[in-house]
Write a structure and sequence with these properties.
The chain is of the alpha/beta class and about 210 residues long. The protein has helices spanning about 15-25, 40-45, 65-75, 90-100, 110-120, 130-140, 150-160, 165-175, 180-190, 195-205, and strands at about 5-10, 30-35, 50-55, 80-85, 100-105, 125.
Length: about 210
């Protein structure tokens, strides 16, 4: 894997510096910039190429939601992982719509950070399981959407996707091929009308498709 050029966008300097120390210990990762808000981020992107942005949601001047939308429009090849806290669950849908490729709790550890970066850079999405469990508890409706009928295996795959597992991890967990997992994922997208995995997760939570 080539070196992953990464920018940290967060308005708290102490957090940025601490995160940078951890990132410098990871394989194939190089921090090429730090920004305190969306405006500073785009000033950096004018002269510095990047592959991935770790994006705080709540920043002054230009917040993470608007910055993610702009990154998606101007730099479609750049991936975005949202850095979030439990109390920011209400922003989940907005960040998904903006184009975020993943969600990490700010209290994440080195191993999860490496896993999330690798997974997103391989073209998949990453959702912190702890964060998603809290999102599901907070945002789930009182009843399940009756019009969506899933097979037992589709339900199982959906729940594993919502736990942040990659196709490879799901295939190993279920003892099936990655092609089979791809097929189940395609059926889920078709049945729900979701355009990608993040929208599938959002749809599943909003419509009560994930078991408590």
């Amino acid at each position: 894997m080539d070196i992953i050029r990464l920018i940290i966008a967060d308005d708290h300097e102490i957090f940025r510096k601490g995160l940078r120390i951890i990132l410098n210990e990871l394989d194939e990762v190089k921090v090429v910039g730090e920004a305190r808000n969306g405006n500073e981020l785009f000033e950096i992107l004018k002269h510095q190429k990047a592959d991935l942005i770790l994006m705080d949601i709540r920043m002054p001047v230009m917040d993470g939601i608007d910055a993610t939308k702009k990154v998606t429009e101007k730099y479609p090849d750049v991936k975005v992982i949202a850095l979030t806290m439990f109390e920011e669950i209400s922003y989940f849908n907005q960040m998904i719509e903006a184009g975020a490729d993943g969600f990490l709790l700010k209290k994440t550890n080195k191993d999860e950070l490496q896993r999330a970066i690798n997974q997103v850079m391989e073209g998949e999405n990453y959702f912190s399981e702890e964060f998603m469990n809290n999102v599901n508890r907070t945002l789930r409706p009182a009843s399940r959407l009756a019009s969506i009928e899933l097979t037992d295996r589709e339900q199982e795959v959906l729940e594993l996707i919502c736990k942040g597992m990659s196709n490879t991890e799901i295939s190993k967990f279920l003892g099936v091929s990655t092609r089979t997992v791809d097929g189940h994922r395609a059926h889920l997208l078709d049945k729900t009308g979701a355009k990608n995995s993040p929208h599938l997760v959002m749809f599943a939570i909003k419509n009560g498709l994930i078991k408590a």
